[in-house]
Write a structure and sequence with these properties.
single chain, Rossmann fold, alpha/beta, 9 helices
Length: 202
Amino acid sequence: MKMLLTSTVEHFAPKLPLVFGDKLKDMNVLYIPTAAYAESGHGEWLVPELDAIRPQVNSLVEFDITNKTQGELLEALMNIDILYVTGGNTFCLLEAMNKIKFQDVLDVFFKRDGIYLGSSAGSIVMCPDIEFIGNLDDPSKANLDSTIAYDLIDFSIMPHINQPKFNDVFEATLNGMNKGRKIIGLRDDQALWVEDSYTRFY
């Protein structure tokens, strides 16, 4: 299992060569914008995200998982090195992922030595549970029976901690979290590299 969990790919993009080295330019990337499409005005930040990564890789192709099948996603991932899941509404993303049985897709992708790249919501869904982010994202946009997520890391990720506009939201979130739960805050230019049980901070 290899994952790069960012706050935002746009601002972390200059550091991508530190993680992947020269092989980055030969990598094929498939990105899932489903979480972004659930938010109005997503073009204002999604386009710069894509523009930041596109020149650094061999190819960048889109795959919105809404109304798609697991088989279609697995086929799209053939010859893909990096599966990149963008930011947006975390609850809508988890709902769409659950419908397509995304965990099964990840199992296959990781066995092929594929790398998962998350941006904001795309990182948060790898946490044990996404309930904590309800002050930042609107849970009512999704129809989830449970906020339990993919639990591939044993802590919660709080993105965008350098953005003052979210200060009140972060304070409310921290006050509402269960004591003892681990949480890591990321500035927009920071990320976590997770490889099996090893975690490195960039």
